[in-house]
Amino acid sequence: MKTTNRSILVGAAFLMATSAIGPGFLTQTTVFTEQLLASFGFVILVSIIIDIGAQMNIWRIIAVSEKRAQDIANDVLPGLGYVLAALVVAGGLAFNIGNIAGAGLGTNVLFGISPQLGAVLSGALAIGIFLVKEAGRLMDRFTQMLGFVMIALTIYVMFTAQPPVGEAAVKSFAPDTIDFLAIVTLVGGTVGGYITFAGGHRLIEAGLKGKAALPEVTKSSVYAIGVASIMRIFLFLAVLGVLSQGFSLDPSNPPASVFQLAAGNVGYKIFGIVFWAAAITSVVGAAYTSVSFIRSFSPILENNHRYLTIGFITVSTFVFAFVGEPVSILVLVGSVNGLILPLALGVMLVAAHKSKIVGTYKHPIWMTVFGALVVVAMSYMGVYTLIEGIPSLFE
Questions:
Q1: How far apart are CA 246 and CA 239, in angstroms?
Q2: In 3D, which of 15, 67, 71, 45 has the Cα closest to residue 220?
Q3: Assuming Cys at both sites, which of 216, 240, 363, 387 could form a disulfide with 352, CB separation 3.0 to 4.6 Å?
Q4: Roughly what angle, to the nearest 10 degrees, separates helices 3-20 and 254-292?
């Protein structure tokens, strides 16, 4: 493999993985571990298998068709790509407000400045990446560097927490309880919404596409899930270690209390670094991917996509800094976001069997079946969470 290709593949994998590892990812993992203890290992194991199935399907079809997801959707059914793009942009904007908020909280822990000021400074840093001519390469390097930092620091905290690794390993295959909601939540948090498309669209932009690139694309898609999963596993073990020692987590900020209980004040500062890194890389990933869903609709949008990305980050930062997090909107759009994966994956599976889209490529039957099962499960849970979210708007 050429060094250039390897760099692009690793960059795409880390862009997707760090897009998944956001503030919600950290909180979600901590809370579910507190509820299920060692049996949460089973949830992680099952979700990894589902994540790989969904992501391999999507990345392979994007690569072989040599088109972005919205253009594939329009080829399947005219107008569907615009619907998909609208859902992704709305969901990406809502989550980016939360990501900006997370970056602000991270800087608050590290430096004691207000979350609003920290959010503005973090937003300015993210904007700076897209002002550079070689923004794609800088984005790749930025997400790789912070991805390694997050994992390394979490490993340190995990070792200080002294988790019962043996029990976790056993319960990962023989759990005391099986929580299906937790499985679907983890799948949605890893490959839901815009996240799974981050790396796939990055490969298209970098020119790594076509049938010849499929082996490399497949490896990259699995590698991306592996990076996100490693982070989740080490955080799970850190939380389990703290809980096994008899400590209780602070319900107002569960992840922070894990790091602090495991490694004292140093651990609390480490949490600040990890939380900020998780948030800022998700800001970059959400902005890049959301804009990638509309840039192909017009030459004007294509030629000005960097400025659209900068505008996307600016709006997200402005909303949090001057309006605050609009909780009701986040609930509603976040619920809608849960419908993006089944819709997009369903479209991809249909496209995979249309020769006008994929040419002579033959998509493996087992991937189609696996993908279809994910579509059914995520559709059910997406509708359920949407119905649950709407009443909260009127409370």
A1: 11
A2: 15
A3: 363
A4: 120
Averaged confidence pLDDT in the chain:
87
Read off the tokens for 322. 């001057």
Helix axes 214-244, 40-65, angle to 10 degrees: 160
Q: Which of 214, 139, 138, 196 is nearest to 343 (CA)?
A: 196
Contact call for residues 144 and 10 (beta carbons, < 8 A): yes
Measured distance CA(45)–CA(64) in Å, rounded: 29
Looking at residue 393, its pLDDT comes to 46
Q: Which CATH superfamily is domain 3-392 in?
A: Amino acid/polyamine transporter I (1.20.1740.10)
Q: Convert the pLDDT of each residue in 212-223 to its tens digit.
A: 888 899 999 999
Lookup result for tokens 């670094």: 273
pLDDT digits (tens, 9 = 90+) for 46-87: 989 888 988 999 999 999 999 999 999 999 999 999 999 998
CB 240 within 8 A of CB 249: no
Closest CA to 262 of 250, 274, 247: 247
pLDDT at residue 340, rounded to an integer: 80
Neighbouring residues of 151: CB distance < 8 A, sequence distance ≥ 6: 227, 230, 231, 234
- Residue reference for tokens 């994007």: 62
Instruction: Tokens for 350, please give them.
Output: 């249909």
Higher local confidence (pLDDT), 385 or 85? 85
Q: What percent of the chain is modeled with pLDDT above 70? A: 92
Map tokens 């599976």 to a residue.
349
Mark out the alpha helices in the chain (DSSP H runs): 3-20, 23-36, 40-65, 69-76, 80-111, 115-131, 135-161, 165-173, 180-191, 195-206, 214-244, 254-292, 299-303, 305-318, 327-337, 340-351, 355-358, 365-392
* % of the chain with per-residue pLDDT over 90: 54
| The two three-digit tokens of residue 149, written as one number | 């930092």
* For the chain, domain boundaries: 3-392
* Look-up of token digits 């480490």: 270
- Given a contact cutoff of 8 angstroms between Cβ atoms, the answer to whether 236 and 44 are in contact is yes
Cα–Cα dist 23/40, whole Å? 19
Q: Phi first, then psi: what are they for 394, rounded to 5°?
A: -110, 5
